[in-house]
Design goal:
Blueprint (H helix, E strand, L loop, with lengths): L23 E2 L9 E4 L9 H4 L4 H6 L3 E5 L4 E9 L11 E7 L6 H17 L4 E7 L3 H9 L3 E12 L11 E4 L5 H11 L6 H10 L4 H10 L1 E7 L2 E9 L4 E7 L8 H15 L4 E7 L3 H9 L3 E12 L4
Parallel strand pairs: 5-6
Antiparallel strand pairs: 1-2, 2-3, 3-4, 4-5, 6-13, 7-12, 7-13, 8-9, 9-10, 10-11
Helix pairs in contact: 3-4
The structure holds coenzyme A.
Coenzyme A binds next to strand 11, helix 8 and helix 9.
Length: about 325
Amino acid sequence: MRCWPACPSVHGLSFTPSLKYTHRNLNAEEILLLKAFSHTDAEVKSFLPQASNYIELAKMMNLPFWVFTDDSAPLGVVTTGKEPIQLLAPIGTPIAVIDLVQKRPRPTMVKDFVSQSLKLALEKDAKLVTVELASEEKDAIASFLENGFAVLADTFIMSRQLDQEYTPDKYLQFRVVKQDELPKWLELATKFLSGSEDVVMERILENVGHLPDHLLAMYYSTETFYFAFENGQRIGILNFSPTAGRISNIGVDPSRRGQGYGRRIMLFGLQQLKAAGCPQAKLRVHIDNKPALNLYKSLGFEVTRQLKLLIWENKNA
Ligand SMILES: CC(C)(COP(=O)(O)OP(=O)(O)OC[C@H]1O[C@@H](n2cnc3c(N)ncnc32)[C@H](O)[C@@H]1OP(=O)(O)O)[C@@H](O)C(=O)NCCC(=O)NCCS
């Protein structure tokens, strides 16, 4: 389970659309032609409503993006920028994020989109490119893998209704993390989240510590962070988003696992989300993280989706 809220780039990325890619036929051998429109191209406007969910990141962070279309509908979106966007690489690393908009595109279109979107990302100097796909999008996953992508994370999205009261735990104490304690929380999180199978979270934790202060403050403002104590000792960490109804991270000191702490911390988190008015709680967990999966299932969470995060990395960067 993890969360890095996307935040505005600190690097003042200017809007430099690639005119080369504007309304250019990308594969002359195909009968149905794939085109790419930059965000500044007037023609892109007609495709934006259907692609709206996929351009949120670009809009929020003021990043350039390209919409690939088959002329009638958007097929996918490529957003470029510099870390911190996903926090998968050191701050300042140029990256690209690919999104597939159409859920059941023709296989030939997918192949074309995958190679052309990667080509565009590399022309923009991306050292790392990611795409997140639902596990049932098999053609797209296969195409990305054929083009040098690898699976970085395979996760379940789980959720449950918050339709009951959760009793506070009288043995554990919970204290909100103050803003100046965030580095300490991150240090503990690195230790208490170990063993989660989630390399994405490990990479985020590695990079988040190097964020400039104002971005760390922004991270702090989007999530609520807690330490869990027993007898004055920090035994666990928790963070959640009351606005998104999301439990973002929970971790227990490795030496204290299997003694009921995780369940009690989760109950506290669910109680907080319910008190904040969330009708539902959701979270993300690596499919191989059996302890966490069992814990969530025992608390009534059900799997709603399976998502694979694929990554292309320039190993020489
Ligand atoms: C997941 C985690 C928070 C569970 O905390 P915990 O204190 O060890 O768990 P609890 O003792 O409260 O156990 C609660 C339930 O979790 C499940 N569970 C815990 N440890 C387990 C294990 N080793 N194997 C299988 N199931 C396990 C069981 O369903 C258990 O209920 P039960 O005791 O009635 O069988 C803890 O293992 C942890 O910090 N892991 C690393 C970080 C992490 O993975 N966080 C979640 C990221 S999504």
